[in-house]
Structures are given as structure tokens and as C-alpha cells.
Amino acid sequence: MRIPATVGLARILKAEGVEWVTTFPVCYVNNALAEEGLSLLMMRDERYAVAVADAYSRLTGGKRIGVCTVMGGLNPAGFQMAYGALAQAYEDSSPLLCITDGLPEGMAGQIRYPLAAGLRTVAKWVGTITAPEEVPSVMRQAFTHLRTGRPGPVLVTMPRGLGEYDPEARPYKPVCGWRFSPAPEDIAAAVQALRSAKRPLLYVGEGIFYADAVGELAQFAELAQIPVLTTLKGKSAFPEDHPLSVGVRGEAAIHFLQTSDLILAIGTSLSLGHFRHTIPEAHQKTIIHCTVDPADLNRTYRTDIALLGDAKLCLQALIREAMAQGGIPRREGVTREIADAKEAMFARYRPLMVSEERPINPYRVYGDLLKTLDRRASLVSPDSGNPRDQTSTVFEALIPRGYVGWGNVSTLGFSLAVAVAGKLAFPERQCLNITGDAGIGYMFSNFEALVRYNLGVTTVYINNGG
User: Fold this and answer.
1) Domain limits at 46?
2) CA distance 246 to 342
């Protein structure tokens, strides 16, 4: 039995575990998605349609893919409005799927805005469906890119009126994704370097979440007794009340970066950015770099040992090899040094967090949040700017994705999208976003969508003069 191309696409999304799609305001495929039982979450602008899908993919570590649709084709105003959000997802390596209308046959090069060229600048991969029979193969490639290698947004275009195809002649099987391990000789060399190091440091990024390697990270850190510093996007991958946690930023982070003689970077590109640490005196340190993307190697810093592969498989291999080589020598006084460095840092902030001064200062708000929230049953995301800078220092995350850091290309207002996606991904959690005067202006219209869909999230708005 032949089916319309749009129906085939909808059924493929359902086969891949997609339950809902964010959108605004229209897209050719939307009617078929709804008719096939997919929920359409109508946000109040295209940017938020992308942002909620983006955040959902991040929060689930790419195990469940966020999907959005926006208007394209001959009138690509929707895609143009979505461009900033897609650029952020691309910069942050978030594996969302965006579907938009394609150009009718023969119209390429006939319009002023080059849709295909615009798509490629903010996507890991672009799939163009030009005939109904191509739906299964293009979608198969799309989900392969979404679930394999470095994460990133994938865009699929499909023009109106494509016609029908036979799904029995072109069956679709869900894509599992593929992972690969670092070379054994590189693992052995990394363990030998760790055994020889005097002051090693683990520097951990968001790749830990996508590899589902939180447990392996804790096991390896405890086995080797190595301090753990995370990137902003990697925050909460390691419990920040753990004796080996250095946190994300502040004096403790700077101290251990400066005094380390070896850095084992896992799940981070080590690229430079507005909210990323630089490695001081990097040429005097041994740098071991675990990444799924060879483009990261030797880009920002010299890579002494490359562990090219999945973070989970890498950590499992490091644990096995460390035990085979007789373990990694424990360094006396490491946890005491971490505790002293963190205490010196928090001593500066603690008075502000209990201050009775008026007007109230932001740190007092964060201090009260720490007392009020159950950090083992909640999700907090700050907006870019002051809320992010301040909370990433003093708000200690206790569970994976209990705090969601984000953004190198940081679009204001994204924190509300994270809270919304958090409620969709973890309905049992209390989901909260923190914003200031600038960020709140980007959110107002989308509060209406939260009321319409009965999504209970909390927004903390700080009057910070932004």
C-alpha cells in the first residue's frame, strides 16, 4: 500500500522513538505528523521551537532526539528566524533534527536567499528529499549522523506535493548509532603517562553525557585519585560535593590548572571560547586528549597522546589498563588540597549568600535556592551573562543534569527552553531557570506556550540592570 511521503516521514520519526515535535508557525509536514499521532508543541517563535528540541537532545544525551519543524521553501522566513538557535546548537554540538520545506523542483538558484547554502553553515549534515522514494534513505542517513560521531544538528528538507511511495518496497529500520574505541597502544601510553605524573588533572566536557559515561568517570577518578575539573557544559557530570571535584571555575579551578603537569581531557574539544578555560603553560604539560572528532586533536594545544574514540569506551579501557599496570600511584593530600582551595573560594561568597543588605544581591538568591531546592530531584539552568557566570561558581550540582550549563555562542533566553525540555525529559523533577533583565525579554511570549501545555516550570528573574 502506497503512502504519502509526509506520512512515511512521520512514521519513521515514531519508529525512532520521537513522541513530539516543536514547531512555529507552519511547516508542510505538520499535518501528517499530527495525523500519525505525534504531538505538536507550538512555541511562540521559531527560535524557541529549535531551542526546546536542542535542549531535549542535550538533556537526554542524544538517547532521545529533539525534533522541530520550521517554515522554509519559497518563503524561508521561519528558517531565517531559527538560524541563531541552529547556530548555537551547531557550536555546542547538539544533535537535534530540524525539518523544513524544500524548494520546488527547478527553483534552486531562482530566489534571492540561498536556502541550501544557509542550512549547511549551521548543520552537521543536510539531507534533501527530492522524490518520495528517498524518504527512508535520507532519514536513515539523518539518524546515522545524529547518533554517530561528534553530535550536531541535522537538517532535512522536503518540498510540498512529493507524492507517494511503497514502504514495503523501501522498509525502514531504526538506526542504533555506532561507537569506536581508542587504540590499545594509546591507552597503554596514557596510563604510563598518568603513572609518571606528579599532578594530573581530569578535564571533563559534555561528551561524558553523550557517551553515557558518568559512572565510568567517577570510577576512574576514584581509582586514580585525580582532581576533576569540568567545562561549563560538562558541569554535573561529576558530583560537585565529591572530594575530588574542583568544580567549573573560580580560584580552585585556576589553581589546579596552573599547577598540573598532566591534563587528561575527556569529552571536550579543548577549543577556545568566551566561557572556556585556557590551559596555562600548556607547552610544559603533558596533554592526553580523548575525543570522537579528529579535528579537535592538535588544534588548540599540542596533543601528546590522542585517545580517539567514545568517552565511555575510553574510560573503560583506561580502568582495565590501569589495573593491568598495577594501578595509578595515589598522591597524598589531594583531597585536602581540593577542600582547602574550595573553602578559600567559598569564603568570599558565603557572606553574600546570607547577606541581609537591600536591595538583595544575586548571591543571596542563589544561597536561598541552595537551601530550598532538592538538588537530587531538580534541574537548574541559568541564562547567559551574569546568572551563568555567578551560579556556575557557587551552585554545586549533585546529580547528572542537575545543573545545565550551555553556550559558547550564547543566545539570551535559552534557559527557559532548557527548563521546558527538562520537564519533558524528567517530568518528576522541579525544573527552574534563572535569568536577568536582558534574558527575560526573550522569553515573554513563550510563557503562554507553557500555560497552554500545562508545563510547570519556575523562572527566577533577577533585576540586574541588564
Assistant:
1) 3-165
2) 7
